[in-house]
Structure prediction request, 421 residues.
Amino acid sequence: MSENIAFPYKPDDYEAEKASNSYLMSVVAVIAGLPLPIINLVATGIFFLGNRKGTYFVRWHCTQALLSQLTVLVMNSAGFYWTLSIIFGDKSYNNDYIAYMITIVLFNLVEFVATVYAAIETRKGRHVELWFFGPLTETICKP
Amino acid sequence: MTNKIITQFSWLLVSFFAVWFSLSQINFIDDDDVREFAKENERRLGELILETITSTNEKIKNEKINAVIDSIKVRICRTKTIDCEKIKIHIIRNSEINAFALPDNHMVIYTGLIEYAENAEEVAGVMAHEIGHLEKNHVMKKLVKEIGLEMLFAMAGGDAGFEIARETGKTLSSSAFDRKHEREADEYAVEILAQSKVDPQHLSNFFFRLSQKHNMPEELAWISTHPDTKERAADIIKNKKDYTYHPDIIINTAWSEVKNLLMHQDEAGFTVDDAGEN
Prediction:
């Protein structure tokens, strides 16, 4: 799910706090973000924009937090609109729908745990790469 | 690095769909039970709403009038293998020009509509349209949307009062289905009318004649529940071109005679049972 990898330099305490906050932003937004998944992304996106000129360590972790939110947004939005079409449209409540909702709850839970873990580790100044999002961020974010 | 990203993304995607697929194999809802439960509730709901209508309006039990309407129904139903028996038609004495579908395949036709129609084909058109709403389950969809599932269950279980059932009946008789459902019912009506050798032009004429009435008295209920009438009358003419048919006479009785029966039942010696007897 995640691995601790050595970073090119040792971030100072201020950088570690900022980087850690980028994950906390998406975690805190979960409270307001349910059931509107877009709020998580907006909160993380604003934090990302505010720090796009920050140090490499801060930018790197803001990007990773943003990318992980994007994936969750796609999954949650599909679930959200499926629910709306059942309530207001012609779609019927069936096994596939229930299975999908349980699946996204599980994936959200995994993402939540990974985000909290990443927030804790980065606060300690340790570099954490999440599964898939780490290598992707590595390609996008350059020193 | 790119390979690592693609591999990890593929794993993510595969695990997502694997979890979803595995979970969907679990029978969270037994479809048969749900269908049976829904059917039984719909039956009770239909009876309850019908009772609220027949308690305040006289139900026509004149055999000859019922036979005429029934023969129109049979003519429409037999073409699309619709189970004729399941559609229960109730003719209600009311001056409103209105007909509407209720849960559990009940259809109410007001005498005002029969008197306003110029021929049996127009009534057949309206009936085909309402059968479209029934066959496509628009009635229950509308009720779930407007009344709410919880209230419907309470009504079917006898926990909601008579007044709520009456209001639900009013919703069905005096408010429109959404535009998409109205169009679906129109298309369905054109199809079964053409197959029954009834010219859909008559339904279009009926729509058009009603829309020509500039003042909208209360009696014009069917038109107020069926918006965009002129546009839809034109669509019916357009849709009917997709079908080849040779119109055939629908009933042997002159329509004026049927109207006459309604207006002068007592004089003609036909009996009308007391309201709500059935």
About this structure: Chain A touches chain B at residues 71, 75, 88, 90, 93-96, 98-100, 102-103, 106-107, 131-132, 135-136, 138-139 (CB under 8 Å). The longest strand of chain A covers residues 2-4.
